[in-house]
Specification:
The protein has 269 residues and is α/β, with parallel strands linked by helices. The protein folds into 2 domains: 128 residues, Rossmann fold, CATH 3.40.50; 127 residues, 3-Layer(aba) Sandwich (Rossmann fold). A 6-stranded mixed beta sheet has the order 3-2-1-6-5-4. A 6-stranded parallel beta sheet has the order 9-8-7-10-11-14, sandwiched between helices. The chain has a two-stranded antiparallel ribbon with strand order 12-13. It starts with a strand and ends in a 5-residue tail after the last strand.
Length: 269
């Protein structure tokens, strides 16, 4: 199996996880990750799967290698399945369950296509393989706010200021939490949240991808953006008694069918 890896960390994890579930479905042992295209986007990214996961803790032979088919986006442009080869994109991911094939090429985002059982299975694969970052549990609640390109793309509309206000009020009223830590890639935009309340102790924490990912999961109470980064940081954290609030849309007009562990959805969001 060959998987094209691109986008930010959240997208990379979804692509990797899609390959894990298909490899499990079809009893495949080898997974090859092609990350050569990660940097070829307007928003510069880094290939980070190896920074977050111990591949040796997964029941597959996983390594990185470039691939001609994925380089030229053939799997995305011409998705089809046969007994000899399968080109898998978002368009046909859900149609492969009854097919038999040994040679898979995956190129997509693989988020909207997931059912809950597949997502839960992905968590069960990835969580034990997540590298230990030694972050202790943190008192209070965390708020993840995605700005930057989310604003220019209009994707922040599914988590407007009114969403954060309602989520904060829910956490305060239900759990008597008064301290809120903010993790963000856009402090200027996120600062608008702090003006909604005059009696709350807001603190900006983190600042790097590794820190931010693990800091979100270190909080019991989490208010998330629609970012795949925030969703995976929560999904792979300790969720024995977590309380997670997240928008019900990935972006405008794109409903999120899968639920995070212990997720609460607010009416209207």
């Amino acid at each position: 199996m060959h998987i094209k890896i691109y986008g930010g960390l959240g997208n990379q994890i979804f692509q990797f996880a899609a390959g894990l579930t298909l490899a499990d479905d079809f009893n495949l042992s080898k997974i090859r990750l092609d990350d050569e295209g990660v940097k070829n986007y307007a928003v510069k990214r880094e290939s980070m799967l190896n920074d977050f996961f111990n591949f040796s803790d997964l029941p597959f032979d996983i390594s990185f290698s470039s691939n001609f088919i994925l380089k030229h986006r053939l799997a995305k442009l011409f998705p089809f399945s046969s007994s000899a080869v399968t080109f898998c994109s978002d368009k046909n991911f859900n149609k492969l369950k009854n097919e038999f094939c040994r040679n898979f090429y995956l190129d997509g985002y693989f988020q909207n296509q997931l059912n809950q059982s597949d997502f839960d299975r992905q968590i069960s694969f990835l969580k034990p393989a997540l590298k230990d970052y030694s972050v202790a549990s943190i008192d209070g609640a965390v708020i993840h706010i995605r700005g930057g390109d989310f604003i220019s793309l209009g994707w922040n509309l599914v988590a407007p200021l009114s969403y954060y206000k309602k989520a904060i009020e829910h956490i305060i009223k239900t759990f008597n939490v008064s301290r809120f830590n903010i993790v963000t890639d856009d402090v200027k935009y996120a600062s608008k949240i702090t003006t909604l309340f005059s009696n709350i102790d807001f603190n900006f924490i983190g600042g790097g991808v590794l820190d931010d990912f693990h800091l979100i999961g270190a909080h019991r109470f989490r208010i998330l953006s629609s970012s795949t980064f925030a969703l995976w940081s929560s999904a792979l954290a300790n969720n024995d008694d977590s309380v997670v609030i997240a928008p019900s849309f990935w972006k405008p007009n794109s409903n999120r069918a899968i639920f995070l562990p212990n997720e609460v959805r607010l009416e209207g969001f």
